[in-house]
Amino acid sequence: MGGATAQPHSETRLLGVATAGQGIWKMTVEIVTSRAIVGIAWLVVGGRDGSKSSKIATLIPDNRTLEELYIKTHHRRISMALDIVLVAGILLSVLVHLLLRRRLQSIRRLPLPPGPAGIPILGSLPQIGPMPHASLASLAVRYGPIMYLKMGTGGVVVASSASSASSFLKGLDLQFANRPFAISRKDVTYDCQNFVFANYGPRWKLFRKLCNLHFLGSKALADWAPIRRDEIGRVLRSMLESSRNSRPVAVAVSEALVCANANIIGQVMLSRRVFESQGEESNQFKDAITELLTWSGKFNIGDFVPAIAWMDLQGVQRHMRQLHFKIDALITALLVEHEATAHERKGRPDVVDLVMANRVDADGVSLSDVNIKAFISVSSPYSPSSSLTLNTMMDMFIAGTDTSSVIIEWALAEMLRKPTILQRAQDEMDGVIGKTRRLEESDIPNLPFLGAISKEVLRLHPSTPLSLPHYTSEACEVDGYYIPKDTRLLVNIWAIGRDPNVWEDPLEFKPERFLSGRNANIEPLGHDFELIPFGAGRRICVGMHAGLLMVQYVLGTLVHSFNWKLVDDIQVLDMEEKFGLVLPKKVSLKAIVNPRLVGSAYILQSSRRVRLPPGPAGVPILGSLPQIGPMAHASLANLAARYGPIMYLKMGTARVVVASSAGAARSFLKALDLQFANRPFVISGKHVTYDGQNFVFANYGPRWKLLRKLANLHFLGSKALADWVPVRRDEVARMLRGILESSRDSRPVVVPEAVVCANANIIGQVVISRRVFETQGEESNRFKDAITELLTGVGLFNIGDFVPAIAWMDLQGVQRHLRRTHEKIDSMITAFVAEHEATKHEREGKPDVLDLVMANRVDAEGVSLSDVNIKGFIADMFVAGTDTSSIIVEWALAEMLRNPTILQRAQDEMDEIIGKNRRIEESDIPNLPYLRAICKEALRLHPSTPLSLPHYTFEACEVDGYHIPPNTRLIVNVWAIGRDPDVWEDPLEFKPERFLSGRNAKIEPLGNDFELIPFGAGRRICVGMHAGLLMVQYMLGSLVHSFNWKLADEDHKLDMEERFGLPRTHVTAARGQNPRPRGGCTKAASPGCDRSRTGRTKAMTVRGQERCIGIRRMQVGRTQARLHASNGSTARTGNGSVHHPCQAVAPPGLSLRVRLGGSTTPVRRWHRPAAEPRSEAGRWHHPCQAVAPPGLSLRVRLGGSTTPVRRWHRLGSVSE
């Protein structure tokens, strides 16, 4: 078996002549047929009578009169001459055909498959009765499983056995993957541009891919399960109401299920139900589809004899066009409405939205504007250039509504004929499910007899008795037979399912045959050709799995939910078939139903009192917001201790569910990962998130996927991290040199500031090819302050986000504060991007991340990134990549300073592996298990993000037996999970050893072990997880290995108080850490400013002249300080600058920051007197002298706020 066999050269020429002769013969037959009909009409009407010729005109295309056809009456002689030539041509073509026929057969060397001879012109068409599948099965008994019929001017081969079907659909699958053109279906198939009747090719593959991906694939079926459950619940409710009146459920299975199927497809594809209830409108829709499928299945003479197709002798084309108009008008209206409501589906795309978004595939195959025209505007109900998406919609509605209802109706009819089968099915379901609830899709694998019933009905009553026609444009050989080119293939599925060589008692309905015996392993999925109700090969039904699932689910639900019996006046159930493209019962099933289950099983979930997770009651309007203290993660953990790991809170008008255990987090972020992959819109974060267009807060969808792909590919993936190793090594070395300089002056080090500066410079070099800050100083500290303030504000529970009606009042000032902070960061990012664009020519051949993102801002599927998307993406990298890792490093050092044995053990490990002659490298980290254990322990006990970024679901769902309503926010309490005593022994103790041995040894913070998820889990896991963990390990290891650390004031206990925000920071920012170098791996640099942090205050100690007189007292928050004027007469001017002598007197530990003009400027010059700051009456006196440009007044920043100094006491006089 195989394709066409090559012929010798001489035979090829003769075959060409023969083929030409056949073409002449075919053309001649068509002309003769047409002229014969016209001649007969001429004789009937009466010669050339002009008054009568108009009657004939109706039989002639384009309304041409007989005079026009015969070149007017006075040219009759010319016409007769032409007729003589025509007859001669006919005789010549017949002679050529007869002479070459025998020779042609010898050339082939193979016979045609056997089949009936047929009659001239029509061939075997008259032998096809009103039930073509039965007629063809009868002919196959006589002529064999592979049968060739001449139908009109074309050839048709029919496969009527499993082996012959396998020969065609497996052995020659690709060759028969096309569809023949049928004139009668031209309107319905949009001139063969739809999915079902399109030829095999790139566009067909694209549509199949989109259908599988978003509608009919296993993942898509799982996503749309709640919709199917809801619609079948509506059917049960309707039938229950009918049963209460003891009246027959009129056409219960067909009409009710067609309505339900249409609504399921409507919600999945268009986000709306098509019919609110079963009624006249839904019945008309069903009738239209049934008629359309019935007429589509007819053997139309015009399809086989194209020369007379214009006459439409059977009226098939007229009926098909009228029915097409009805259905097309309905679907067009649905699509127009869908386009008008696009704004309501933001973040919740349906299938049509996804098809639109993926109109171009990776190979460049696209759906043009003409193809998707129906989505925007449709000029008329029918147009040859209508949308391919509209065609697919038509296919989905037609194929997805009537076919499964036909199978279910047949199954119920067979069970009503054999009540023992019905009873056995109900007994099986009662044993597995019981009578207290409905059957669910998850129950089906546990119901083998239900599965056997479904397969048996598909065998005995396939919805499509004859496969859709296949077509080959090339000659081929099958099982020793020659198949000419341009041959149609029909697979008689109905005959295969009743083959006595395969099936014992083939006409009996016996589901047991699929439970044991030789047929037990046969499945209707296209691999076992004994049962192919959905076809096989490349053109197998794309909705096969969905169709089988719907048959089993709906049939099982109906059988389990009701007792069935025939209407009293029906003695014998009519089992006659009605042929069409599908094979329904000729007389629809009517039955009386009685409920079998408890009453609550029939109640729609939307109207049932659902079981919400436990949680506090809350107060009116605000809900549980007053119960959330300043440390939100701790407040929620305390509530979870009372209400459980899954807790539901009403916060204002918003619904919030909190997961506080590893098991609860797994239930949401693994089992329902996709459903909770979106982010809620927060008013307070509107500016910070660029109106939801940045990466971190964007909803899950194509644009988010593109941003994540670019981040992984060029910035945060393993290959990108390896490419940027030199940048990280250099910046960490700079940080160590700065710390070394501080150690030589015995000055304390503020670790977060140093780490933030290094991180910002690393990100800057990687993303925009420049260091952001030349040195750690005032500019880098302002940047860190802005990021810290921004993250703190975003992490707050803002009332306006939960009660939108009062958001405009901004009661907490969060929105105002965030807007100002965002403007600072945005202006910096904008300046970076502008400078980056201006220096593009300097980076030719050396692109950075921003260059690569700009170059790949449009992906292969047509998804594009706007300038705002890219700007938000860059801002996310700086904001998320700088402060978070510095917080973890700070906490880890603080814990090691509290536990010096841990610090010593870490240093000993590194000395053994690395030594003291070089710095730690990233390649050393895998060899330092204790360092990694310290980092994991810091991430467990002090996660930088104690509460996960909020997730959001648009649809209702069920989690661990609890109902989660739609539009609910999900917060995972990462802080509480890391301190769960059921998972961690001594959870409040800092014990890195727990990750080296014992039950926690194999836990990793990478999103797979839900006991430790500092970076989140699921689809929205932190994209910078690997980079963040690497930076924490590398920086912490570098600091611990390079320096000895101790507290500056050993008499004071290290403050471990937290400050809540989006990242949870250390209140006392590692103040008082005095590092001492441990090896020769750093170099000295010029001294810098002395900085420290106390409480929430960052300050600068400025040393200068020590001569002062006069006192000025200031009150700043809870901090008091005194300012002294210098013992000079006035401020003096030198080198264009004004020298302001002063002295600040402050409580111990509080130093001074000088603010000049409108910005805080570090004082880089001062005069060091011999005297150091002195202590008097419990306060420190800091002599200083500020040097500033002329015209700038002096402001002193104490305790976090800036107070102007307006009065100076100089030599007894006062100067304003």
From TrEMBL:
One GO BP annotation is: response to herbivore
Q: Which GO terms describe its molecular function?
A: heme binding; iron ion binding; monooxygenase activity; oxidoreductase activity, acting on paired donors, with incorporation or reduction of molecular oxygen; terpene synthase activity
InterPro entries referenced in this protein's UniProt entry, alphabetically:
Cyt_P450 (IPR001128), Cyt_P450_CS (IPR017972), Cyt_P450_E_grp-I (IPR002401), Cyt_P450_sf (IPR036396)
Instruction: Name a Pfam family for this protein.
Output: p450
Co-factor(s)? heme
Q: Which UniProt keywords apply?
A: Heme, Iron, Membrane, Metal-binding, Monooxygenase, NADP, Oxidoreductase, Transmembrane, Transmembrane helix
Q: According to the UniProt record, where is the region Disordered? A: 1069-1097, 1120-1142
Q: Record keywords: Nucleotide-binding included?
A: no
Q: Which domain of life does this protein belong to?
A: Eukaryota
Where composition is biased (Polar residues), the residues are 1126-1136
> Could you name the Gene Ontology cellular component terms for this entry?
membrane
Where is it located?
A: Membrane
Family that this chain belongs to: Belongs to the cytochrome P450 family.
Which PANTHER family does this one have?
Answer: CYTOCHROME P450 98A9, FLAVONOID 3'-MONOOXYGENASE
Protein name stated in the entry: Flavonoid 3',5'-hydroxylase
- What lineage, starting at the top, does this entry show? Eukaryota, Viridiplantae, Streptophyta, Embryophyta, Tracheophyta
